[in-house]
């Protein structure tokens, strides 16, 4: 445990940020899974599901949760799967 006041504050701030990141990552993964499930089941709203997932991916990249190349990879994979199923 840190003894310096600023180090104690950093521990608290990092804990808060970790929880936020976990929540955002969880929401991102859920959205991607929903999009994949919609594509697999050939649902009528699969384009909307993919659009929502792409939006979440872009938001995660903007916040620094994902590297921009990783975000592009995930979006391309979703788009490829959508086009193959169409």
Automatic annotation (TrEMBL):
User: Among its keywords, does the record have Ubl conjugation?
Assistant: no
Matches recorded under Gene3D superfamilies? Ribosomal protein S20 (1.20.58.110)
Q: Which UniProt keywords apply?
A: Ribonucleoprotein, Ribosomal protein, RNA-binding, rRNA-binding
GO cellular component labels: cytosol; small ribosomal subunit
Supply one GO molecular-function term: small ribosomal subunit rRNA binding
Check the UniProt entry and state the signal peptide residues, or none: none
- Read off the Pfam families from this record: Ribosomal_S20p
**Biological role stated in the UniProt entry:** Binds directly to 16S ribosomal RNA.
- Official protein name in the record: Small ribosomal subunit protein bS20
Point out the gene that encodes the protein.
rpsT
């Amino acid at each position: 445990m840190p003894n310096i006041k600023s180090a104690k504050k950093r521990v608290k701030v990092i804990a808060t940020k970790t929880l936020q990141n976990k929540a955002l990552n969880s929401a991102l993964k859920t959205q991607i899974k929903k999009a994949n499930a919609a594509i697999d089941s050939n649902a009528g709203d699969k384009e909307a599901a993919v659009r929502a997932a792409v939006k979440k991916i872009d938001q995660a990249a903007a916040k620094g949760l994902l590297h921009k190349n990783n975000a592009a990879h995930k979006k391309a994979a979703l788009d490829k799967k959508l086009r193959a199923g169409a």
